[in-house]
Amino acid sequence: MIHRAAAVCLLMLGLFAGNAAAQDPPAVLAAPAAGRDALRAMIEAAKKENGVSYWDTVFQPETHDEMTAAFRKTYGMPPGYPVQYTLSTTLGLITRVEQEVNAGNVTIDIASIASPPWINTLVAAGHVMKYDSAEYKAFGGAFALGMGKPGYYAFNGAYVFVPTWNEDNLKFAGKSWKDVLDAVPPGRISLNDSGNSATGVLAYIGLRTIFDAEYFKALAKLKPVFVLRSEATAERLVTGQDLMAFGGMPTRVYQYNERGANLKFLMPSEGVVLLGQGTFILNKAPHPNAAKLWLDFTLSEQGQTILSRREALISGRSGFKSPLPDYAPAFDSLKVIKMDWEHITTDDIRKAKEEWLSIFNP
Predict the structure, then answer these.
(1) pLDDT of residue 332
(2) What confidence score (pLDDT) does residue 22 get?
(3) CA-to-CA distance for 247 and 270, rounded, in angstroms?
(4) Domain segments of the chain: what residues?
(5) Can you name the CATH fold of 32-158+275-329?
(6) What is the per-residue pLDDT for 202?
(7) Which of 29, 156, 173, 239 suits a disulfide with 279, CB 3.0-4.6 Å?
(8) CB 110 within 8 A of CB 294
(9) What is the Cα–Cα distance from 362 to 359, expressed in whole angstroms?
(10) SS3 190
(11) Sign of the CA dihedral 216, 220, 222, 224?
């Protein structure tokens, strides 16, 4: 009888363990055995926090919807688990984050923006949470270029500003940034408003490492139209308001071409400035456990695949296979203009902006 009772107990324990494993969400089942208990605890804590909020400068609403659904499923969150999202301009995000951290009233959990110098100032001031995401191990190449800081942030996707045009309205066969200067008549080209765009001025800093000011003075003679949002840049090409955009985004080219447009872009022979959207958790985030899960998911292969497919963003994961190689090529296949991201200061940015304004005077 004793042996029989013991056997029944072992059977019951086995069934209990099997049921517990069956109830684990996909993220726990995929995690190393040694880390599953900690992940289960983080998920339960995130459920009690009942939500997460993030700000971004690129993701479109449809991307957010797919990311949110996949996030809930991956971590076994309730169907209506709140994921609050704000799409912002670069300067709008910077202003809001600085207001919140200076006031000590943080409502944003995660922010993502393509400005390593600005994020580094937040890290130095203690405003970014120290978190060693398990996904960081896949971002070694990006970290080596200064596009991220281990333990603090990596980029959730990178983009470039490059010459873009509507093939229906312009036949352009250039290969270089220099070819743009002879491509269209004055008044028919748009330019990123670097006087009001944090990423625009960083792109300008990068291009100034390969071109002197005279190149940009020649560009100014084309009387460019100054545009702030990448969506508007693409829209102006589609409608024919502009024949070319000096700094269009392949992300928007892809999205508009999916709707029937015929936009093209050039990866110039001199190289491109790669702008990686550093994603980080605010140190006083109101939902820290949910924020860690959202950051992990965003940087995971599944999250990166969604972002690359939806937004044509370039992943910083080593060995990542892009679902859209024509629009978002592999990270290590690009000719990238080297930027000393670690040592670009706010003073460097101020001087670059002043120079840009003196040349273009929008």
Answers:
(1) 85
(2) 55
(3) 15
(4) 32-158+275-329, 162-271+341-360
(5) D-Maltodextrin-Binding Protein; domain 2 (3.40.190)
(6) 95
(7) 156
(8) yes
(9) 9
(10) strand
(11) positive
Type and span of the H or E element at 245: strand 244-248
Q: What is the torsional sign of CA 154, 159, 161, 163?
A: positive
Contacts of 135 (CB under 8 A, 6+ apart): 154, 295, 296, 299, 300
Return all residues near 44 (Cβ < 8 A) that are at least 6 apart.
none
Query: Which residues make beta-bridge pairs with 314?
Result: 158
Which stretch of DSSP H or E encloses residue 346?
A: helix 346-360
Which CB contacts under 8 angstroms, 24+ apart, belong to 169-176?
169/237, 169/240, 169/243, 170/243, 170/244, 172/244, 172/264, 172/266, 174/266, 175/266, 175/268, 175/269, 176/268, 176/269, 176/270
Is 3.40.190.10 the CATH number for 162-271+341-360? yes
- Residue type (1 letter), 162: V
- Assess whether the region 32-158+275-329 and the region 162-271+341-360 belong to the same CATH fold: yes
Could you tell me which of 66, 80, 84, 70 has the C-alpha nearest to residue 25?
A: 70
The whole-number pLDDT of residue 362 equals 65
The list of the chain residues with pLDDT below 70 reads: 1-22, 362
Residue with tokens 């202003």: 95
Both tokens assigned to 361: 């005077």
Is the four-CA dihedral 28, 24, 322, 85 of positive or negative sign? negative
In the sheet where 154-159 sits, what is the strand order? 83-87, 52-56, 110-113, 275-281, 154-159
* 39 vs 35: CA distance, rounded Å: 6
Query: What's the DSSP call for residue 172?
Result: -
Q: Do 201 and 275 form a contact (C-beta atoms < 8 A)? A: no
Q: What is the pLDDT of residue 350?
A: 95
CA nearest to 21, candidates 9, 33, 38, 7: 33
CB 271 within 8 A of CB 337: yes
pLDDT of residue 359: 97
Contacts of 136 (CB under 8 A, 6+ apart): 143, 150, 151, 154, 299
For residue range 176-218, list pLDDT tens digits in order: 999 999 999 999 999 999 999 889 999 999 999 999 999 999 9
What gap in Å lies between CA 62 and CA 11, rounded to an integer?
Answer: 47
